[in-house]
Amino acid sequence: MRRGALPAWFTKRLWFPFFFSLILLFRVYSLHAAELTLTSSAGYDSNPARYEDEEGSFFAAYGVSASHRLISTNRANLGIAASASYRDHFSLGDNYRLEAGPELSFPLFHGALIPAVSVGAVIYRDYLVDEDERNEVFADLGLAWFASRSAVITLRTGVRRLDYLNEASSYGGRADGGSHIGRGGMGRASFRNGKGPGGGQGQGTPGGSTGNTDGQPVVYPGREDNLITLGADLDLALSPSLSLGIYGSYSRLDSSRSEETRDIAELGASLEKRWEDLWAADFNASVRSSWFHESRRDKGAFISLRLSRFFGRWRLFAGADLSRNDSTAGGESYTQVMTECGVSCSY
Is the dihedral of CA 294, 159, 131, 92 positive or negative? Predict the structure, then answer.
């Protein structure tokens, strides 16, 4: 059994009691202070493991996110949030992710400045790329400045500890180290939910020396990473129905395995168009560069397009993502295309 792994019959079912526990928790409190969103979707991913040699699969995905406001005054806001997601690749391994934690914010100058702090923990399990299985803890700080009615500037920083559970070969697991470096997650939950692109995926031992005369790959114990991120966001309301977001970040990931240590820079933009309360279109694009400790260089790009149709609390959506990573390390370059459609409901 893998380090930190639970019996298969238990982990396959862990997501479901978590799902219903979230619903029960937020049904206990008055719904005017709680938010609950359920999502279900299906689609096709051309390269879910992000290998250089692609292997695609159809998938079904399920998710639940919930937040509850414990304290809300003119001086402080305290809330808790939790989320769970499960993805089943029909012809490949599945994965799930659980996250929970509190957030505290302090509106200042009649809400013109909002500093916020959040902490939390993450459990991630992956039966397709088991080298990526990990536990995480994080602490984020953010400061939002409402410069005008149409402009918001947010500064954010965060630290994250990632404890990988399983053995891995050189450059094993996804190339982003499991980090969530993109927009969002750095003390921004009180301001606006954002999401950055994921990173690359390496297969087995690409680009790494075998270290053995018989050609067998070197296997390392599960590593421990420390991630520090600094970022800034600019949100502009170009019109009542059109908004533009620009974001950038710099991150430093220090790993117990020196070849995984890297510096990461990312720049991106998002555009959202709404037609009354019926339709919405979202476009996101970003570029990322990573400089590894051992003379490796990665350049990546991400493009996403989403179209949504609203029916009160219900939302139908469809979209497509394109990810590309080019690496100087052999076997670490990949292309991934994903199409998806689904439904969500918010309470």
Answer: negative
pLDDT in tens, 300-329: 999 999 999 999 999 999 999 999 999 998
Those residues with Cβ within 8 angstroms of residue 56's Cβ, 6 or more apart along the chain or in another chain: 44, 45, 46, 47, 48
Q: Are 131 and 161 in contact (CB under 8 A)?
A: no
Distance, in Å, from the CA atom of 125 to the CA atom of 282, rounded to the nearest integer, reads 29
Cα 11 from Cα 84, distance rounded (Å): 13
Comparing CA positions, the residue from 65, 130, 288 lying closest to residue 197 is 288
Q: Is 200 helix (H, G, I), strand (E, B) or coil?
A: coil
- Residues 199 and 177 sit within 8 Å (Cβ to Cβ): yes
**Topology of 44-58+97-346 in CATH?**
Lipocalin (2.40.128)
Distance, in Å, from the CA atom of 240 to the CA atom of 131, rounded to the nearest integer, reads 46
pTM: 0.81
Strand partners, 148: 151
Q: What was the pLDDT predicted at 51?
A: 87
